[in-house]
Amino acid sequence: MNQTESRSAKARANGAGDERFDVIIVGAGFAGMYMLHKTRQIGLSAIVLEKADGVGGTWYWNRYPGARCDVDSIQYSYSFDDDLQQEWEWSEFYATQPEILRYANHVADRYDLRKDIRLNCKVIAARFVEGGAGEGTGHWELEIEGGGTVSGTFCVMGTGCLSTPNEPKIEGLGDFKGEVYHTGHWPHEKVNFAGKRVGAIGTGSSAIQAIPEIATEAAHLTVFQRTPNYTIPAQNRPLDPKEYEEIKARYGELRAEAKKQPNGLIYDRSSRSALETSEEERRAEFERRWAIGGTNFIASFNDVMMNTEANEMAAEFVRGKIREIVKDPKTAEILTPHNIIGCKRLCVDTDYWTTYNRDNVDLVDVSKEPVERIVPEGVKAHGKVFEFDALVLATGFDAMTGTLLRMNIRGRDGLPLKDKWAEGPRNYLGLAVAGFPNMFTVTGPGSPSVLANMIPAIEQHVDWIADCLAYLTEKGVGEIEPVEEAESEWMEHVRVVGEASLRSHCDSWYVGANVPGKPRIFMPYIGSVPEYARRCNEAARKGYEGFRLA
Ligand code: N01
């Protein structure tokens, strides 16, 4: 009997839970699937619990019209297996949601993952059970909606950063007699907007992708905008077979190069300062990037995200584009943002600004006077009722912490994660929380996560966790938990580097400002992907420095 078997067998003998595994993984998105694959490779037993009836995580839920990734598909994909990246064929530079979901399903089949993924299995509580006299070390017990518990020595949360929709706190939402859709929880069957009057609330990334598509189908679309947003045209295109072939020939090299980049992405990153460049050259560079398209625009100059004056130059260029494209000056004015560009996540669109030139699209500014309430016929704002057949809520997510905090997680001595995080998330390296032994979070707050290229960021975390589990198993260690001091130092470092970036200086979901009452804290780690990986590796190399092993 190996150590793994003996650990599970002991726990079963103790009667802990209905079923017992070495590792319980929550979520069957890109994090959960890769974690399962790695867990098998190190010889541990694992189960994935997934509330949806399919794999794919965020790409399973976000099926709204126009949904696609704004990181190029060549980079927004797994890199752990060269055979996989050689055999899969992306059709477009930016992949659509259906194509990414097909990819997720392909991965599930290719690595025979499904037999260890339990679908329609929502975790409603997770608690750490201290080790009894027979076992010595503790374990996790997860409660499943509808009954039953699953136990595991380790628990890995692959629950995503943007997985709990943010329902807007608008009175009367339940009174509306038409159809209501949230972009983050879109139906599986096609929603038919043809001939309908549609109201859309929100102008973030999801809305900016959905609005042009809905406008072409609906009889009429009214957009309620609270904060104008910056968006850069995607300039999406099919992948040129010759170009694709060349990329595949040096895929490994490109992946290695990406790991050295601040956000883990190969970007056309300028080393010039906007402030030290002539106006003519600056404009030419902004134009060049606008024509190429995508979030790369923000890297036009190296000080755009560090200096307010440089930032204002980039912002003013985009404002000029809005004034040029949107024909009605009043609409253009409402659409024009005046805050820091790139502070809220920069959006990428196809035909967003031109959509407001359509006769069947109206814009309502709810920045000064918010939506008053939802009524059975539609939306009441500015003292009048806008009548709709369907309402689209593109109001985002309770990001980074929302899903974990709703899961009723309790650590040592029954400590609720809600209490531990009452003033904002606290953890060590974005990977583990003091007081919650043997629990890991993949791309948790305090890690580069949403500021990085998500799939490689997931791979880095999962590789680290898997190496850690292999180490613990080899050494016969049953418990791992960060020490408070290491956690505090990490949180302070996350705060200090966050402060230095303009990104932490506005209201956005990065700081929890989109959810009323959420503590304001810049949640992701902005100290760069390579620096982050270096710190994680160093902790591991020093025998998991900053952790207590029992
Ligand atoms: O959500 P958001 P999202 N009344 O929070 C408004 C990723 N993503 O789903 O700004 C009126 O950005 C809110 O207004 P305000 C990406 O990381 C990626 O669009 O808070 N309005 C805002 O306009 C992205 O950043 C991709 O004032 C209300 C909007 O709703 C993240 O997901 C595609 C309101 C919410 O915008 C979230 O994007 C899509 C109210 N009561 C998403 N409440 C790609 O890869 C909220 N709003 C391309």
Question: Which stretches are poorly predicted, pLDDT < 50 over at least 5 residues?
Answer: 1-17
Bin the strand percentage: 15-25%
Total tally of structural domains: 2
Shape: globular
Distance between the termini: 22 Å
Total number of helices: 17
Give the biggest beta sheet.
Answer: 8 strands, mixed
Proportion in helices? 25-40%
Provide an overview of this structure:
Strand 1, helix 2 and strand 2 form a beta-alpha-beta unit. The longest helix has 22 residues, at 454-475. By secondary structure, this protein is of the alpha/beta class. It is globular. Mean pLDDT is 95; it is low at 1-17. It is built from 17 helices and 20 strands. The strands form 5 sheets. Strands 1, 2, 3, 4, 5, 6, 17 and 18 form an 8-stranded mixed sheet that branches. A 5-stranded parallel sheet has the order 7-16-8-9-12. The protein is 33% helix and 16% strand. Bound molecules: 3-acetylpyridine adenine dinucleotide. Residues 69-70, 162, 168, 170, 183, 201-207, 209, 224, 226-227, 345, 348, 366, 370-371, 394-397, 450, 509, 514 line the site of 3-acetylpyridine adenine dinucleotide.
Write the layout of secondary structure elements.
Layout lengths: L2 H11 L5 E8 L3 H12 L4 E4 L8 H4 L20 H6 L9 H14 L6 E2 L4 E7 L9 E6 L4 E9 L21 E4 L14 E5 L3 H13 L2 E6 L5 E3 L7 H9 L1 H9 L19 H14 L15 H18 L3 H7 L11 E3 L2 H4 L5 E5 L7 E3 L2 E4 L2 E4 L2 E4 L8 H5 L2 E2 L6 H4 L18 E3 L12 H22 L4 E3 L1 H17 L28 H13 L5 E3 L1
Parallel strand pairs: 1-2, 1-6, 2-3, 4-17, 6-18, 7-16, 8-9, 8-16, 9-12, 10-11
Antiparallel strand pairs: 4-5, 5-6, 13-14, 14-15, 19-20
Helix pairs in contact: 2-15, 15-17
The structure holds 3-acetylpyridine adenine dinucleotide (N01).
